[in-house]
Automatic annotation (TrEMBL):
Signal peptide: 1-28
One Pfam family this sequence matches: TPR_CcmH_CycH
Name of the protein this chain belongs to: Peptidase M48 Ste24p
GO MF, any single term: metalloendopeptidase activity
Keywords: Hydrolase, Metal-binding, Metalloprotease, Protease, Signal, TPR repeat, Zinc
Gene Ontology cellular-component annotations: membrane
Species whose genome carries this gene: Actibacterium atlanticum
Record's keyword annotation contains Metal-binding: yes
Residue ranges occupied by any Cytochrome c-type biogenesis protein H TPR domain in the UniProt entry: 301-397
Tree of life domain: Bacteria
Cofactor(s) required, per the database record: Zn(2+)
Positions of TPR repeats: 307-340
Gene3D superfamilies linked to this entry: Metalloproteases ('zincins'), catalytic domain (3.30.2010.10), Tetratricopeptide repeat domain (1.25.40.10)
Domain Peptidase M48: 41-225
Length: 449
């Protein structure tokens, strides 16, 4: 997305929903941004998007760091998956069944009709809204419970509460996308079976998926009928899809589960590239940098042209404070994948850590490129603010900080930095207008409280 793309004003109605969701979010979970995981999820989603008539280049598959089982769409271009759901899936087809169902909500216009009276939000604040919605749906929080049980605002229910008719429609469409993409539709039944019986539980004990996606017995029966109609289970899973699923699930688990558990789970005999990657992450987290780098040497020897291996090596070196070596590793990753924004962001972060005038200049260039491709990464925006400050451009530093807080859904704090940016940037410039949009959005929230 070009950096000069103008922001659109956020409508009063949308801001009202945003404000109503902010209150219960002090303990909201965070997004997990990782280039390899997101790339792997895009590989799984791409054949489904094609069948759904959706443009994969405009879709985001994002992971929320939450151990509960949930998946949902909060706008017309973002599918959110909880980390707990990904780790619970046994194979690629089960995860694709979840993605297909959520894509069906987008393709069938369920969210569009719900938001028909709203204009779209600007770049930073738009994802801030989406993240706020995501936070409201996490785990066992009161926001998630109130959302479906009716003890919270109607605005929350508007965004997340699917009707039984919508769920039936999404199941039918999702199964059709899967069948046309050559994916076994019985995987949808396998996913629903995981949640079977939870409707009888107290709402506080249910996983959010069955709270936001009604799961009556007839829905499971209908899913079984769809699976039977589309064929038997004789076809083996797609090996390419299985590979990318293993990479996404393996890396995610290695980073969020106990490293000793990961090492026991992988064992010593498995020498596949995914197993080696998981060991490297686990050793890094223990921490045992020497063993982690030894595993990374093996991984890069197995996949020398894979940018994500070099990126992971750069991350391990950076977090072990070996900054110069981290720059070299990230540089190799950027050369292999020059358009991956999260890799560019990591490269910029490593250059900033070296902290010389030349490296700071190169960092600003890399981070600007990352911003142009993905302006929604709070960590990148934090680094971009540092890079601008070191270059003596305090106005742009304040703007990047404001956009970071807007993306996080903290519009009040964002407005403070945006006002500072407006005082430092040329009036009417692109940066000044971006800052003004944040200030306007924050004022509308304040008026509705």
């Amino acid at each position: 997305m070009p950096t000069q793309m103008p922001l659109r004003r956020i409508s009063t109605a949308l801001i009202l929903c945003f404000a109503m969701l902010l209150a219960p979010m002090a303990r909201a979970q965070s997004l997990i941004r990782d280039a390899e995981i997101e790339f792997a999820l895009r590989q799984l989603a791409a054949p489904l998007a094609a069948q759904a008539g959706l443009n994969m280049s405009s879709l985001r598959i994002m992971v929320i760091n939450d151990s509960s089982l949930n998946a949902f769409v909060a706008d017309t271009r973002t599918v959110f998956l909880h980390s707990g759901l990904i780790l619970k899936m046994d194979n690629s087809e089960m995860l694709q069944a979840v993605i297909a169902h959520e894509m069906a909500h987008i393709a069938n216009g369920h969210l569009t009709r719900r938001m028909a009276n709203y204009r779209g939000a600007g770049r930073a604040a738009a994802l801030g809204l989406a993240l706020s919605l995501a936070a409201a749906a996490t785990g066992s929080t009161q926001a998630a419970i109130g959302l479906a049980a009716g003890s919270s605002s109607s605005a929350q229910r508007v965004f997340f509460g699917h009707t039984r008719a919508e769920e039936s429609s999404a199941d039918q469409a999702g199964a059709r996308y899967m069948a046309r993409a050559g994916i076994d539709t019985h995987a949808m039944v396998d996913v629903l079976e995981i949640f079977r019986g939870q409707e009888a539980l107290n709402v506080g004990r249910r996983d959010p998926y069955v709270v936001t996606h009604p799961l009556p017995a007839e829905r499971l029966r209908a899913a079984k009928g769809l699976a039977a109609a589309y064929g038997d289970r004789t076809k083996p899973p797609n090996q390419t899809a299985e590979y990318w699923f293993a990479r996404a699930k393996g890396k995610l688990g290695a980073f969020i589960q106990n490293p000793s558990f990961t090492l026991r789970k992988v064992g010593k005999k498995d020498q596949s590239d995914v197993a080696v990657m998981r060991r490297a992450v686990a050793y890094h987290r223990k921490p045992d940098t020497k063993k982690a780098l030894a595993q990374m040497d093996k991984l890069i020897a197995m996949r020398p042209q894979d940018a994500f291996g070099h990126e992971l090596r750069g991350q391990i070196l950076l977090e072990s404070r070996n900054f110069a070596a981290a720059v070299n590793a990230y540089n190799r990753a950027v050369n292999l994948a020059p358009s991956e924004p999260l890799i560019l962001a990591g490269y910029g972060r490593a250059l900033l850590a070296v902290n010389t005038s030349d490296n700071n200049r190169r960092a600003l260039s890399a981070l600007n490129k990352a911003y142009a491709r993905d302006p929604y990464d709070p960590r990148m925006l934090r680094d971009l603010a540092v890079a601008h400050a070191r270059a003596g451009n305090n106005g742009m530093a304040s703007l990047a900080t404001a956009e970071r807080y807007a993306v996080l859904g903290k519009l009040g704090t964002a407005a403070t930095h945006a006002q500072r940016a407006m005082g430092l940037l040329p009036r009417g410039s692109s940066g000044w207008r971006r800052a003004e949009d944040i200030v306007v959005a924050a004022k509308r929230v304040a008026r509705k409280k």
